[in-house]
Amino acid sequence: AVVSTQSTGGTYIVIYNLRKNPAGDYEFDFTKDSSDICIAEDESTMENRSLFVRQDRINTNPTTDYSLRDYCAILFLRPKMQIFLREKKVKTRLIKKSLSKTLVDSYKP
User: Fold this and answer.
1) Which ranges of the chain would DSSP assign to H, the alpha helix?
2) Distance (Å, whole) CA 67 – CA 43
């Protein structure tokens, strides 16, 4: 792992001990996008993905399912910290603005 010396604080996440698929490729794809880490596409992931997809999402594939950058962008309800992935800042967004078919329910005990 390459660690930048520009910052004196923060949390570094190191990804190691990666598995390989039957074709011999790693489970994460570091070369597809130079600013992102994605789940590598292969036949087994495509077959398994169709088992867990809801019927109303059959034709769409949200990028949060396979992109670490997009997942980090909506990770926190109220993002107040900076996240850098592969030395580029992740532009965070509010998850409630990116959801469709939202419902507000108020609870009073």
Assistant:
1) 43-52, 68-73, 95-98
2) 18
What long-range pairs does 49-53 form, CB within 8 A, spacing at least 24?
Answer: none
Contact assessment for residue 35 and residue 85, using Cβ atoms and an 8 Å cutoff: yes
Q: Which amino acid is at 19?
A: R
Which residues contact residue 60 at a Cβ distance below 8 angstroms, ignoring those fewer than 6 apart?
Answer: none
Distance of CA 63 to the CA centre of its chain: 7
Residue 3, pLDDT > 50, answer: no
b/e per residue 52-65 (b: at least 16 CB within 10 A): eeeeeeeeeeeebe
Q: For the whole prediction, is pTM greater than 0.70? A: no
- Which residues, other chains included, contact 96 with Cβ-Cβ below 8 Å and sequence gap of 6+? 77, 102
Contact, 72 vs 91, CB < 8 A?
Answer: no
